[in-house]
């Protein structure tokens, strides 16, 4: 490891001299112009044009129109003070069919881009493969075909021949794990195939492509050669908070197995010339090892100068006997991927900056020869344009946290040479389309207007100072707004609270200061003026499928909350917050003082609204249970206890192979029911068998089909929702099973239809109406100065003929 000293000049947390600051993008995500300049089709053109593959059918046809606007984009980078820019070359622009003659117009495009960058004093970093495989090669087997690796080396030579005199740093393949596993293993990325064996073949050939192209680049005289990997520390939930925690033998084995799959499967062959033994064993069980030929590992193990690290979030797992393998991680039977209890981005990814310190220090310990560069780090949030600003404080805080984490790694001796944010521009986020915005520059996809977000302006200062302020950036305060506007704090507070006593002129001055500073009012601002509106917002933040809005019980719940509040003399406003806009409207409405409190119907664990509302200082009570990140009082029902009772009942009836159909994993209620099911089986020696549905009748039927295929001998099933249970019951009967003689079934919820099925359904009755009333009463009590407490109501098993 190279010892790098970090100076701590006065107020700044300084990075080493010459530290590289920049941003990254990828061709298909920003270029558009898919039919321009002789470009051939790629797998992502085909995939995104296949109905149902990407969110709302979005494609990269136009994207950020960077193909035509590259000169403006480079000017923008210069204005933001970027010192480096990592872009990717689209293979189908260089070789439209993936092999054979080179298309000069394609090379011309990248040559213009590189020349513009150099003229602006921005160092170009070229990535050769960021997932846009020429479709013609996919038609011949794509990355499952060994020949693709050789074609890639030819292509690398052609690009280097033209640009090698001006581009010093070359990255071969971006994130082979994602390309192989999401593309070939589970099919959520192009080309959309779903086979573990194919994913392992594809990863090996991607590694081979790295080795072959690195050799070609070296022979061509490339100055710096790099490989970019998505790396994640693999942690248990306990280790998240306490990195020193001693793990049980089972947990340690689970962590090691997942680490081998996601990290060492790529680090070890490229940097050590070998596959870790657990990876070979798993590969052997999924398609065999025939695709690994003598000499491959030597080819893959080319000397590299830099390792590019893409870090977003850690991987959190623990040992859980009976858990089926995660499809994205073949060979992970008996391991539960639990996710982290931490605030999340709009992607639902847990924000854990210390994970970056762990990745970097681990690399410098285990692979000390290679220099390190963060080639991607960033976050999607639901940005809002206010006039000509985007106050993306969450994103700035995200970068600030991760830069501090990177700095800590450097202080611990990691040879980290630079940091590139993902991404320069909002862009086509693969299967998520344009819905997830990762840019530090906002893009209006209708007009193609670029608007640097506050995080970009903040980043420019970081670059200028080659470091951060020692003190963490603070959110603007009420005092700061008052000082900027030249008025008293109470005037600001009155404006924010919508009081009519401030003149229009002062109101305009205050609002101007609020916008300029990106101020978000909190409870301090509100408490200066105590006033009651006698209004309560009843906010539904779940999409109807999660909330079960099709279910008549749901409207009964809304009616009960409303009645309870109205009887206490409150006016109730019903608001929907099932979109980013809706959430923002609710947040603003609450923050502006229009309501005394909020009852929020939410069961989505990653729902950003509970913590956002809590920050406004308005009392909130949740109907449902908050995700781990939000500390909000709630009224819930004992989902876990109900599920455990159902399993105990099945065991008491002599059932031994008890499967479960769970609801969506991102719903807190589903998580609790699944937890109860597992709890019920714990210590019985029976394993858990789980399928997932989305609470609808059809999904229950599908899940039941799957369970019967996976385990034809099962004798009971616990279904975490009555509509799904009814779907499952139909499938059981159609498949010739006698219920309950052959298979017993228990539902959850006790909807009216449950007593009318044949046979009638045993189910867990949840006191929905009582829960609704309780939420309303908790809020009223809190408004009267009482404590902000939570309540969990008991559930009850209703035994009918199906068990
Ligand atoms: C990485 C990809 C990049 C972008 C970010 C969010 O896995 O390399 O293209 O999609 O994730």
Textual characterization of the structure:
- The protein has 29 helices and 29 strands.
- The protein is 41% helix and 16% strand.
- Strand 25, helix 28 (722-734) and strand 26 (744-749) form a beta-alpha-beta unit.
- The chain starts with 11 loop residues before the first strand and ends in a 5-residue tail after the last strand.
- With 803 residues, it is α/β, with parallel strands linked by helices.
- The strands form seven sheets. The chain has an eight-stranded parallel β-barrel with strand order 2-3-4-5-6-8-11-14, surrounded by six helices. The chain has a six-stranded parallel sheet with strand order 19-18-20-21-22-28, with helices on both faces.
- The site of beta-D-fucopyranose has 12 residues, from loops.
Features:
803 residues; eight-stranded parallel β-barrel; six-stranded parallel sheet; 29 helices; 16% strand; binds beta-D-fucopyranose
The low-confidence parts are 1-9, 523-530
Measured as a percent range, the helix fraction is: 40-55%
Strand order, largest beta sheet: 2-3-4-5-6-8-11-14
Q: Please tell me what the overall shape is.
A: globular
Number of strands: 29
- Tell me the quaternary state: single chain
**What bound compounds does this protein have?**
beta-D-fucopyranose
- Percent strand equals 15-25%
Q: Radius of gyration from the CA trace?
A: 28 Å
Helix/strand class: alpha/beta
* Major sheet attributes: 8 strands, parallel, barrel
Mean pLDDT: 91
Instruction: Report the total helices.
Output: 29
Q: First CA to last CA: what distance?
A: 64 Å
